[in-house]
Each structure stands twice: as structure tokens, then as C-alpha cells.
Fold this sequence. Notes:
Blueprint: H1 10-29, H2 34-52, H3 57-64, H4 72-79, E1 81-85, E2 98-105, E3 108-115, H5 121-126, H6 134-149, E4 154-160, H7 167-171, H8 174-187, E5 192-201, H9 202-206, E6 213-217, E7 221-223, H10 227-234, H11 241-248, H12 252-257, E8 263-265, H13 276-295, H14 299-311
Parallel strand pairs: 3-4, 4-5, 5-6, 5-7, 6-8
Antiparallel strand pairs: 1-2, 2-3
Amino acid sequence: xxxxxxxxxxxxxxxxxxxxxxxxxxxxxxxxxxxxxxxxxxxxxxxxxxxxxxxxxxxxxxxxxxxxxxxxxxxxxxxxxxxxxxxxxxxxxxxxxxxxxxxxxxxxxxxxxxxxxxxxxxxxxxxxxxxxxxxxxxxxxxxxxxxxxxxxxxxxxxxxxxxxxxxxxxxxxxxxxxxxxxxxxxxxxxxxxxxxxxxxxxxxxxxxxxxxxxxxxxxxxxxxxxxxxxxxxxxxxxxxxxxxxxxxxxxxxxxxxxxxxxxxxxxxxxxxxxxxxxxxxxxxxxxxxxxxxxxxxxxxxxxxxxxxxxxxxxxxxxxxxx
Length: 322
């Protein structure tokens, strides 16, 4: 697949174009230009390192939405085995924006749940661009309760612009479905590992990200609202999205400094889409370590710690008034 470059990645794209031109020339002429290709590859690596060393929050947001970035199904296929997808909320319908089912991680039975976006136009429409309706969150809750019943660890993957705000979704209780998931996950008696792999937008992300450990990929985002939405509210213009991204503190490093996430999983140079295999290896090692740590603790200890983590969010300062 041809690599897609973002606007700020022009220095990388220019070197990549030179590499491609040389490769085509080599195929046509048969002349060995390995040395020149190696030199250009080194230049590409330096350009990538330089660009990604100084990303703004808005640029990180763009990387988190990159159309070639791995989605939940990619993580399921590479990290888990024996995946058996389960459908429907047993009340209204099946929501393709949320996928989930039984699987095995390192041979151990588990439950996997995540948002799923689409690659092409047809799949994007079918999955509603990764924006779940209430039945998607109720399906997730059904699977969470099943995991609790059989004492299965849960892995959730967060990647959504937010819950779908359509009239039908609101009529069927969108906010109630999200609130119910938050409540139930806070007291679910099984181990829960949540990972933000792309966009973590608003309550749509929160609804499957309450757990014992919250991980974020290096170039993912997690926020109460999208930069465009925040800009529209604060400045009445979506063009102020870069300013909103800076104010909202949406990046993994910022959220880690605030104590809102537990761990950052570093991505390959240029983002997860540049080397998915390398990212999967890193995430697998992280999952093994985290799961082992959680299984060493009793469920009562985990629930107490989970509650304490939730209650610790946010800070305030008392001031005396006359």
C-alpha cells in the first residue's frame, strides 16, 4: 500500500519520493544503486526523527487519525488467537462500530472489546466511522458481564471520535448507555486493561476505558472533546482547532504528567502505521507484564485500587473568602 503523508511530513515525503524514483530507475536499468538507496534511507530516518521530535498537540491529533493506522481488528489479529466475535446487545441491534468477542492471549482465555473504524468508504459507512450508537455500548456491557461471569481478563481498545450524536441514538438512550458502562466497569469483578490506540474522544471513549490500567500509544489522543469541537465552542470556528488541541492537553505525555493514564507505549519512528509489527511486539510485552501484575493481586484489592484511581481524578484548592 502506498504510504500516505500528512502535511507536516513533507520533508519525509520528499526523501521517500527520491527513494521510489531510484528504485524504479534500478529496475529499469539493472544498475546496482544499493549505496545510494542506503544513504537515502538514512536521510529518511533522520528526517522522520526530526519531524516527530517536535510535534504539536494538533499534529499528534492528526497522526492519531491517520487512515493507515492499525485499528482494533488489526490488534486482535496480531496479538490474540482463536478470536470468536460476538454480536448484538440482545435488545435492539448489532452495532458494527464496536467489535468484541472471546479470544486467547498467550494461550489464556480472555475477552476483547474495541471501537472499529473502516478502511474504505463502504466499511466506514457500515461502521459509522467508529462512532457507536447505544446498542454498541450495550453490546460491550453484555460482553463485560460475560467476562466477569467466567473470570476472564478484559482487553479494550479505544479509537473513536466520540459516541454518535444522532437523533435515533439519543432516543435510544445514548447518555444512559455510556453512564451505565462507566458505573458497571468501575465495579466489574475481573481484570481490565484499557488501551487508547488512536482517538479517545469524549464519553464515547470513556465508556470502554474504565479499568485497572489505562495505556496510551505514544501518538494517540484522549480528550473530553475533539479539537475541532472545542474550537467551535470556544472560538466559534473549527479553524482554531490547533489552538484548542494545545489548550485541551490531549497528548499521552501531558495526560501522564497529570496522572490520568498509567503508561505510555512508545511507537515506531513515524507512528504505528510505519511499522505495525514492531508496535505489536512492544504492546504484547506490555500486556504480558501488566496482566501478570494484575493477576498477582486479589479482585478485592483491584476493585479498591480502581475506585481510588477514579476518585483521585481532578484537583481542587480551597480558598478563604471574606
